[in-house]
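Continuing from yesterday's entry. The apo prediction looked reasonable, so today I'm repeating it with zinc ion included to see how the binding region is handled. Same sequence as before; SMILES copied from the compound registry.
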Amino acid sequence: MVPRDRERLQIFFIKHRGCLMSMAMRDLYWTAGFLEGDGSFLFGKHEQLQVTAAQVQKWPLERLQRLYGGSISGHQPENPKWSFVYRWILTGPTAAGLMMTLYSLMSEHRRGQIKQALAGWKTKPVSNGMKPACPQGHAYTEENTRLYRGSRRCRSCQRERDNLRTVLRRAA
Ligand SMILES: [Zn+2]
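Holo prediction written out below.
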């Protein structure tokens, strides 16, 4: 980017910072209001943290998806008299981030749900595939990791085992 363009861009941001900020705040307040009424904050099925919302209308859910990601699915309830509903689901760290961001804007009741969901999520053990180091504490860096039948093996541990074997063989 030529310096002149950069300068123009900076001027643009300084001039419009106020309204760019208020746009983001508007989205946030809208989200808080919408989820206060039609959302739920859970740590439930399959030990997954979820922010969900169900609606007969699809557009509010599409707005949520545009803002935060997640997925939308449609459901026909078993009772045919009930109307077709759409459900938006956001999971994982993004869901945690959204819960923390919205927390101060929500009612006591919703804050209780958020607290409970986050507490459950924090105690969830990190799955083996996500651990940053082997049981002996060697970091699973690219050089130190070997894939064996779909799981990670530690090269440092392998080397230590090989060395031990050599020493034992020599001692014999
Ligand atoms: Zn190791």
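Comparison notes:
- Residues 3-38 form the longest helix (36 residues).
- The chain has two domains: 3-124, 130-171.
Will overlay with the apo model tomorrow.
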